[in-house]
Amino acid sequence: MKAIVIRENGGSEVLRYEDVTLAEPGPGEVRVAVEYAGVNFIDIYQRKGLYKGQLPRTLGVEGAGRIVAVGPGVSETKPGDRVGWAMQDASYAKEIIIRSSVLVPIPDEVDLRIAAAVLLQGMTAQYLATSTYPLGGADTALVHAAAGGTGRLLVQIARIRGATVIGTASTEEKARLALEAGARDVIRYTQTDFEIETRRLTGGRGVDVVYDSVGQATFEKSLGCLRPRGMMVLFGQSSGPVPPQDLQILNRKGSLYVTRPTLGHYIADRTELLERARDVFRWIAEGALAVRVDKVFPLADAAKAHDYLESRLTTGKVLLQP
User: Which pLDDT belongs to residue 98?
Assistant: First the structure.
């Protein structure tokens, strides 16, 4: 079976398209033919060694496909079922062995390509907007990278919940996509200081919450965008890790809150996992949540997919197709 394997950490050149041996599913496990695997920044962090893991390893934490075999004790799924998963390793492969308990059923009205494109980022946007900082109609949120994969979904979910959204984007095309997703205003951060502009757009008050997947390049100025007792939600580091901070800055800027959440802790309970996935799929079926697939690369071209994601030129989801 073909899979993408890394044997050392480094640039995209360490991604190797190799033959691997896959065991039969054990108790509680199933074997899934992967139809699409999502490409995410967490894969890049793992490839570089920013997120540690035992080597060699097969990358990829998200995908969708059909069950081809079930192990002993599995009763909730059967061969032929359409399923998706997120935050589970080894998805850059033609097949995967995975625990049945972490799979989510994909409704008939949701295409497998869309399911693979939306599960990780969609559930991330869902928990950020409903649990980390539960947005409501009185809230204003600043969403960085508002035209990216997670950002565009987060803008839409924020609007579903009635919140006002200010987005940031690098280009006119990305600004247009963020506005189409429901942002009230979009700041071209390559042309305008987003901290100053956010203050202007909020009449000097600041926003209630900043959702920041960029990290190093935006963190400090993002704190300056918050109202007193506002919340900074750092959920990624596409520009690099945030350097150590003097926590007294939170006091000086208004008794701010900072959190660094990750999806795994919000879907560890199966009931919570299914609730978040159902919300995402329901919004898609109702037409309230539009999923944009930017590019689909063959599995063998995983290095090109990583290079493209790191280029910061994406305007939607990047997928691999085994």
Answer: 97
Question: Can you tell me whether residue 173 is helix, strand or coil?
Answer: helix
pTM (two decimals)? 0.91
H/E element, 29: strand 29-39
Give the single-character DSSP code of 143. E
Q: Between residues 313 and 252, which one has the greater pLDDT?
A: 252
Per-residue model confidence (pLDDT) at position 201? 98
Quick one: angle between helices 270-286 and 112-127, nearest 10? 120
Q: Is 137 exposed, middle or buried (0-12, 13-18, 19+ CB in 10 A)?
A: exposed
Given this model, what pLDDT does residue 175 score? 95
DSSP string of 174-230?
HHHHHHHHT-SEEEETTTS-HHHHHHHHTTTS-EEEEEESS-TTTHHHHHTTEEEEE
Cα 306 to Cα 20, 68, 112, 193, 215: the distances in Å are 21, 29, 21, 29, 19
The whole-angstrom separation of Cα 98 and Cα 95 is 10
**CB-CB contact of 37 with 322 (8 Å):** yes
Kindly give the residue spans of alpha helices, DSSP state H, lying in 17-111: 41-48
Report whether 118 contacts 284 (CB < 8 A).
yes
Q: Report residue 292's pLDDT band, with 50, 70 and 90 as the boundaries.
A: confident
Residue type for position 63: G
**pLDDT of res. 6:** 97
Domains and CATH numbers, the chain: 2-119+264-321 (3.90.180.10), 137-260 (3.40.50.720)
Percent of the chain topping pLDDT 90: 90
Q: How far apart are CA 150 and CA 279, in angstroms?
A: 15
Coil, strand or helix: which one is 233? strand
Q: Which pLDDT band holds residue 279 (cuts at 50, 70, 90)?
A: very high
Task: Report the mean per-residue pLDDT for the chain.
Answer: 95
Phi, psi of 18 (to 5 degrees): -130, 165
